[in-house]
């Protein structure tokens, strides 16, 4: 039997990919989005082209509007909350708006779900930034990357929270509210502390979505700025693998309700943001890539890798796309859709 899905921020990168997947398998999907981000209207048109113009229910709305949310939540079985202000730098420049969207907006979603009466499943896209800069850990500098000796398999969910930057604080606030609504109100919520998600339909910019941005910049012959020394390490997760994790949580509510999962590519898909990433990109692109360097940005972790052992064990999930093939797939998509970025 098909379910009714509400995806806040559903015209964004992750949301549009998930909406398409759900519609093609016969689910009922409502996208709730204010279309403020670049690429949102293009993503919306793409979903409709892929699935049929009348298959999708679109509501132009903002998570800062409780009344609009309450109306959209009615009748929904699953709420996938993706709407957010997503850039650390933007949060530093405008912490008030960042708070209103990420913290207050998430609270509004939870309240709409709580009074809904149907106890819908709530999936929340959190972030590894809730763990802060990890400055208390001994970080070892190798030739091409940093590593944390104490966590050879990555950071696990038992690591203490340390919200850093207004973005970390606002997303962390949402993270804890979502988790607590499961404990206090019995709302079946699942928090995904997401690492570096990348893939097709990602309109990356310098401040957010670095994998896509580097590829876009190379193809458009735009300058690339590296903040720090390029040895910063992230674990990359292709968007289709993330959506598999969402599906696994929704299909196994007894196992996922009330849980927090770190979700990323894990140690096998970790890479330094330039020293190791650039050789892959140069090989795909077929030439050297020029860069400029600048000072470190606030809140930038030298190394973050997700320990994904909990979600592997609980939901029988693991990444399928390796970094090399994922980057190649995204490069080809950007190249084929170059006009969208001009």
Strands of the widest sheet, in order across it, are: 3-2-1-4-5-8-12
CATH architecture: 3-Layer(aba) Sandwich
Give the class-level CATH name: Alpha Beta
Assign a percent range to the helix content.
40-55%
> Which structural class should the secondary elements be placed in?
alpha/beta
Gross morphology: globular
Distance between the termini: 42 Å
pLDDT under 50 segments (min length 5)? none
**Topology as H/E string?**
EHEHEHEHHEEEHEEHEEHHEEHEEHH
C-alpha Rg (nearest Å): 19 Å
Largest pleated sheet: 7 strands, parallel
CATH fourth-tier homologous superfamily: NAD(P)-binding Rossmann-like Domain
Question: How many domains, in number, for the residues?
Answer: 1
Q: Kindly state the mean pLDDT as a whole number?
A: 96
Strand content: 15-25%
The count of strands amounts to: 15
CATH topology descriptor: Rossmann fold
Summed up, the helix count is 12
Quick synopsis:
By secondary structure, the protein is of the alpha/beta class. The protein has a single domain (4-341), classed as Rossmann fold (3-Layer(aba) Sandwich), CATH 3.40.50.
Q: Could you please describe the fold and organization of this structure?
A:
The chain has helices at 13-24, 40-51, 66-73, 88-93, 95-114, 165-185, 210-220, 239-251, 253-256, 277-285, 309-315, 323-336, and strands spanning 4-8, 28-33, 57-60, 78-81, 121-127, 139-141, 146-148, 189-194, 196-198, 225-227, 233-238, 259-263, 270-272, 292-294, 303-304. The strands form four sheets. The chain has a seven-stranded parallel β-sheet with strand order 3-2-1-4-5-8-12, sandwiched between helices. Strands 9, 11, 13 and 15 form a four-stranded mixed β-sheet that branches. The longest helix has 21 residues, at 165-185. Helix 5 (95-114) runs parallel beside helix 6 and helix 10 (277-285) crosses helix 12 (323-336). The protein has one domain (4-341): 3-Layer(aba) Sandwich (Rossmann fold), CATH 3.40.50. A hairpin with a 4-residue loop joins strand 6 (139-141) and strand 7. It is an alpha/beta fold and 342 residues long. The radius of gyration is 19 Å and the shape is globular. It contains twelve helices and 15 strands. The mean pLDDT is 96. Helices cover 40% and strands 18% of the residues.
């Amino acid at each position: 039997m098909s379910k009714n899905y509400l995806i806040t921020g559903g015209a964004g990168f992750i949301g549009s990919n998930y909406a398409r997947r759900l519609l093609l398998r016969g689910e009922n999907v409502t996208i709730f989005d204010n279309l403020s981000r670049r690429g949102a209207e293009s993503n919306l048109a793409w979903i409709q082209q892929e699935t049929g113009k009348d298959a999708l229910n679109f509501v132009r709305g903002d998570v800062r509007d409780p009344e609009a949310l309450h109306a959209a939540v009615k009748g929904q079985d699953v709420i996938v909350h993706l709407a957010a202000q997503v850039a650390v730098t933007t949060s530093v420049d405008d912490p008030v708006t960042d708070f209103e969207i990420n913290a207050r907006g998430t609270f509004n979603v939870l309240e709409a779900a709580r009074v809904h009466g149907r106890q819908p499943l709530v999936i929340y896209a959190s972030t590894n930034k809730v763990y802060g800069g990890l400055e208390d850990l001994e970080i070892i500098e190798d030739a091409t990357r940093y590593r944390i000796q104490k966590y050879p398999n990555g950071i696990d969910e038992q690591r203490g929270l340390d919200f850093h930057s207004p973005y970390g604080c606002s997303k962390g606030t949402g993270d804890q509210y979502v988790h607590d609504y499961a404990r206090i109100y019995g709302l079946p919520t699942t928090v995904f502390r997401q690492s570096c998600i990348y893939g097709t339909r990602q309109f990356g910019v310098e401040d957010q979505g670095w994998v896509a941005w580097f590829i876009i910049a190379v193809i458009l012959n735009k300058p690339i700025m590296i903040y720090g020394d390029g040895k910063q390490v992230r674990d990359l997760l292709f968007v289709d693998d993330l959506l598999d994790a969402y599906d696994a949580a929704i299909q196994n509510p007894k196992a996922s309700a009330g849980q927090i999962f770190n979700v990323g590519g894990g140690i096998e898909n970790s890479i330094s943001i330039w020293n190791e990433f650039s050789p892959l990109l140069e090989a795909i692109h077929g030439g050297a890539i020029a860069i400029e360097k600048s000072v470190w940005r606030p809140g930038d972790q030298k190394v973050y890798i997700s320990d994904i052992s909990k979600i592997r064990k609980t939901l029988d999930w693991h990444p399928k796309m390796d970094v090399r093939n994922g980057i190649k797939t995204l490069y080809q998509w950007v190249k084929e859709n170059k006009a969208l970025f001009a």
